[in-house]
Amino acid sequence: MTLKAIPDHIGEGLTVLFVGFNPSIRSGESGHHYANPRNRFWNILHQAGLTPRLYKPEEDGELLQLGYGFTNIVSRPTATAAEISKDEYKQGRVILKKKLERFRPKVACFVGKGVYEQYSGRRKDIPWGVQEEPVVPGIVEFVCPSSSGLVRMKIEEIVELFRGLGVYTRLKD
């Protein structure tokens, strides 16, 4: 069974565009971002103070009202990012750059250092948080850990890094 890409939630005037590797199988089946029950994305956003309540994957489109959008560097759903080919990353990098240039979010938040590596072509010394030399000038490129349940970082550490987005968002402490 071939799963379809899930739709981007994107538009003009976004505060943060979250960029993932690609949809999970569960996201491909449901049509919603970060739908795998082992993915901690929605919990992380809420714990970081970026959402007023805990959202569910099927509410992903509602976050546009908060100024948040969603896309992926590769649109094809897979079980793991290891299944993504070099050609898919190469094409995805070009498509993503065009999306950023067109929609101009204030912040592009890469959910996973590997996503940013694939997008930017940089491999060394990528810090968490704001990147000094954005690929698209005028857009803050912000790197956070992946929210996948496979990531071995403590949830508190991941939440703290996501909390750094708070200076750009409408929901402030």
Annotation keywords:
173 residues, alpha/beta, 28% helix, Uracil-DNA_glycosylase-like
Question: What is the terminal-to-terminal distance?
Answer: 45 Å
Question: In what order do the strands lie side by side in the largest sheet?
Answer: 2-1-3-5-4
Q: Which structural class is indicated by helix and strand composition? A: alpha/beta
- Give me the CATH architecture, please: 3-Layer(aba) Sandwich
Look at the structure and give the CATH class.
Alpha Beta
What characterizes the major β-sheet?
Answer: 5 strands, mixed
| Mass-distribution shape | globular
Q: How many distinct helices?
A: 5
The helix fraction, in percent, is 25-40%
Fill in the CATH topology. Uracil-DNA Glycosylase, subunit E
Looking at CATH, the homologous superfamily is Uracil-DNA glycosylase-like domain
Strand content: 5-15%
Number of strands: 5
Spatial extent as radius of gyration: 15 Å
Poorly predicted parts: none
Question: What is the string of SSEs from the N terminus onward?
Answer: EHHEHEHEEH
Overview of this structure, please?
The protein is an alpha/beta fold. The chain has one domain (16-168): 3-Layer(aba) Sandwich (Uracil-DNA Glycosylase, subunit E). It is 28% helix and 13% strand. A five-stranded mixed sheet has the order 2-1-3-5-4, sandwiched between helices. The longest helix has 18 residues, at 86-103. The chain starts with 15 loop residues before the first strand and ends in a 10-residue tail after the last helix. The mean pLDDT is 93.
